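Case study.
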Amino acid sequence: MLFFREWGKKAVPKPIRRLIGLLGLLTIVSMVTFGAMNFLGDPLFNILGPVAADVDNPESLKAIEEAKAQYHLDKSLPERWARWAWDFVRGDFGVQFSSSGQPPVSDLIKERLPRTLELMAVAQIIAVSLAIPWSVLAASRANRRTDKISTITAFAFVSIPSFAMAVILFYFFSVQWDLLPDTYTATDPFWGISHDHRLIQLILPGFTLGIGSAAAYQRLLRTDLITTLQQDFILMAKSKGVSKRRVLYSHALRPSLFSMITLLAINIGFMIGGSLVVEQFFRIPGIGSAVVEATLREDFPVVLAIVMIVSAGFMVFNYLADYLYTLIDPRVRNEDTSKPRKITSMGM
Amino acid sequence: MLHETDSADNILELSDYRVGFRTERGLAKAVDGVSLSLKRGSTLAIVGESGSGKTVLNRGIMGLLGANIIEGGSAKFQGEELVNTNRQKFWGTKMAMIFQDPMTSLNPVMKVGNQVSEPLRLHQGMSRKEARDRTVELFTLVGIPEPAKRFGEYPHQLSGGMRQRVMISIALAIEPDILIADEPTTSLDVTVQKYILDLLVDVQSKSNMSMVIITHDLGVARGRADEIMVMYGGRIMEKAPSETVFQEMKHPYTQALLSSIPRLNDPKHTRLTPIEGFPPDIVDGPQGCKFAARCKYAQDTCLTLTPEETTIDTHTYFCHFPVGTDAGSEALKSNEDKGFTAAGLRIKSKGEVV
Amino acid sequence: MNEEQEINADEVTNDSQASEEETNISDSAQLEVSEFADKKTLGFGFWLATFWLVLISFLAVFSPILPFKDADKNYIAYEQKENPLTGKVQERPVQPPYAPSGEHWLGTDQDARDILSRTVEGARISLAVGALTALFGMIVGGTLGMIAGYFKGILDKIVGAIFLVVLSFPGLILAILIVALLDRSLLTISVTLGILGVAPIGRLARAQTLSFSEREFVMAAETLGAKKSRILIKELLPNVLIPMSTLAMLVIAVAIVGEGTLAFLGLSVQNSATWGKLILTGSGLSTLESSPWVAFVPMGFLFLTVASFNYLSDRIRDYFDVRDIFVTRD
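After joint prediction, the assembly is written out as follows.
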């Protein structure tokens, strides 16, 4: 046994091993979810509705039997899981139990996933665009009033939950000042600046999602910037006559971004599942709202598929984040890239 | 109290220049009254231990010390007063500085070529291409092999010697009127040292650039510097043309420095003669001469009275009992006889300090 | 002290104000001492936050006996109004929600229920959820973590695997799943959120245990022949508790937010007011337009509480200089 382990370690480089581990994890997640849903809920009820309980009626019974056969509900739990898993990895996500006509789940995903991705992209762009100037400002006036105020602000924003943020922003920008639209229509065109374009419609929800991230990024970036600014090469840049602004943005920023970028990667992964509330509130038909609806309707295939997508996304981005260093830090690029680097605050 | 030269010829003139830091315990007088003149085109070597104030002096002149300092006295650059002004307009144009450790002074995530071409594009209005060409030229000049390839590399990909050469290229690119080099060769090995120093001198002679070299190594100063200034405790101990310092040194500290250098042709197992003791506290420092606590010649006067300036021709020193004078020799002998100095430093006979 | 103050006061004008405007970039000499001083005292904010938490807990616990209005009663006010049809003056109900007034200090909601009382009621549930979640997380996570960290070997690997699985789940989705499928009781919600908290707490406990168990006092106890369980409880637990408490506070904050989120999706505790529910009630377009306090009052309470927990956690961590590794889930 030990031999195989050692051989395995040598034959398969670490990143690949981690990948395999993640796959294993995903499998376990699917098993747990599958088990939870079947254990705690009743698929039959979802497919057939009240008919499922109507065991006295011979017609209902027939329908029940048919459903059982069609969906293999008579087989054991492990077997059902195995069937599901086999279909899943081949791209067949099953059908939506609770929608009439039972369209394939993949249709739903295809429709909804891009909406969520749009929202996420807008949110992160807003977050980064806010965080960078905010951090630069705070770091360049470290420990003075501007900095203290921005630290408190960042802290406050991190403490506001997304649904509260949604209400607050909605109140000010939509209700009071009527600056931004209050509905999202998936069929509207994307690019454009009127209220009838998705880009504008996504500003409010994007901001809601993004401001929390922005605050988190700011806290990291500010600290790293302050550390960087004490390095000799900053003094060197000054002595070359480089202006303050240029020193901050062209010299100090790059080496300080690493922690923030790592968090960004992790956040993206997290946000796929975390955009739920915002999607619900602003009525954006993304996979977040889809999973909420599906859970309430006990539509298992949909829930399973989305859980898998979200978990996989989360894991992938976490995994990438660990190796991000090797891509963006020139010091590491040329070295041994098979070891994931520890995330230190500066990597210097 | 300066040289008998025409002021217009002096690129740098310091008069009782002072730099202090505010600390919890009080005012730290890092530079405690330094006066000097630097002639255009000449080289001054500032020699001293860590804590002597040499780095603060130089960064102070440049104006790179940050906002928590107090500056006093006068420092004139090309006739213009620098003290308490913002010197940004000189940086990268007329004044340039080489820092001690090239690994930490170069931006680790920026290509070295861009770090050199930056001042060219900012101050000399060159285009990207022009700056790049000039940078490659400079790399060749300083002896960096495969200069075009090196342009796109990062500091960690170069050796220590090459990094220092990059630093020098930056200085050369700026073509300053005055270059301040803070320990430019300390982190290099001996052969590279020689090359770098020769290079600097070469450039200097061609462009009439003035240079201040900070070093703790007298050997580096010799032969490369026109004038040597020895600093201790934030003050000048001795200042003279370099050969004079070596042959006719007057200050006991200079003498001690010289004798602490191991020489190649010393017999085997010769004991090293370090200078006993520690640098003085710059907040709550001693009265009188700053070096008295560690000086073999120390007398009571040294402990209470600050030595005044003595200038003979081009040689300036601050000592009550200078080396080689009657007063000095008597002082030393009396200390040797007693077995210790007025400051309590023990002395064995034959000038060896316990 | 040193009479030879040679720096002439007249010449010294390096006014830090002036330099601030000119050179704003911090230099190595410039890290003010105050930055380090901050970490050594607990500070004004700390006590402010503690005060708030004590206050809100007090209100929550003792609300039944405190003179608040009934949280479920509809306090419809009446006024004399002229009936447009008959011209007669009648008593007609005034349309709620009512703005804050002497009668209702924080106003009422659309069903004329007093907001202050409801918010205090909400505090009871929300804080209860927070506390139970943290308790569950600490007990289960802490125990698992300490076992893993102390006994190491295969136990460590098993526990590690469990943590990993829990961490890989999209938390919110899992919570929604369980609550939707089971029931919506206080216990279920707390335990669900607690499960999610087990992993970070457990990891921390494990890390702390690992580092502490290498220290001398543990080895000393072992050589003296103390039983492992005794060591765990008497030596390690007290040390592990402090960093765990800071994390626990964060967990409470996250749990309160989690409950709020669930409530916002319609999945919170049945038949009771919680902050999330109250905020939801007040978030309709028309309500926000006409009577924003319905949403903002509970939101304010929520924010203050969550921020206080977050802040306390930060402060204590700085004060005790705890270095911990845990997964941040903002």
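Observations recorded in class. Residues 138 and 146 of chain A are 6 Å apart (CA to CA). The two ends of chain A are 40 Å apart (CA to CA). We will return to this complex in the next lecture.
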